[in-house]
Write a structure and sequence with these properties.
Length: 94
Amino acid sequence: MEQGKDFSWNDVPGEVRVSIAAALVASRKRSGKSTEFRIAQSYLEHVPHAIVEFGKMGLEDQLLRILDCLTYWRGEEARAVKKILNAYVKGGIA
């Protein structure tokens, strides 16, 4: 839990924050259509808690879970959001 003290929501790059918000909006719109979107919505809503508790590692873990749940999300927006989130998890966005 000590790790969370060195990392906060303000340390998350703007494009990652926007992508998290876009994924949350999409998951809320589609939550009645599949279990994966409902689960993704829950993970997305708990991103701030993961950051507080576990810092960057908590954010990365949540993003991996979110990406797994959004596997079937399609379209231009989906590709753009998933590309940014994947890049962040892989260390391509600092």
